[in-house]
Amino acid sequence: MTDDRTRAKALGYLAHFGFGLLFASGYYLIFLVIDASGWLLGAVLGLVHGLFAGTALVNILLPLVHPRMGSPWTDARS
């Protein structure tokens, strides 16, 4: 979104905060739809969310759409 690293960091913090609110709202809607809640259900949903984010999202999907993310064949040592 910007070449300025300080501005990029600020935008990143804002984006993470906004997406955190969206995910919290999504969890709330899931609890509402299935009419159940509790720490165990929240932990299971969080585990599924974390596994997806830590595997498929970061390693497969994010490099496809992020213009500045390196790949195994590119790095900063040029």
Morphology: elongated
Count of DSSP strands: 0
- Give the topology string: H per helix, E per strand: HH
Classify the helix fraction into a percent range. Answer: over 70%
Estimated radius of gyration: 17 Å
Major β-sheet annotation: none
Low-confidence stretches: none
Strand composition percent: under 5%
Give the count of helical stretches.
2
What is the residue-averaged pLDDT?
86
**Amino- and carboxy-terminal Cα gap:** 23 Å
User: What is the SS-derived class?
Assistant: mainly alpha
In quaternary terms, these chains amount to: single chain
Using brief descriptors, characterize the structure shown:
78 residues, mainly alpha, 2 helices
Structure description:
The protein is mainly alpha-helical and 78 residues long. The protein is 73% helix and 0% strand. The protein contains 2 helices and no strands. The chain has helices spanning 5-34, 39-65. The two termini are 23 Å apart. The mean pLDDT is 86.
Topology:
Blueprint: H1 5-34, H2 39-65
Brief characterization of the structure:
The chain is mainly alpha-helical and 78 residues long. It has 2 helices and no strands.
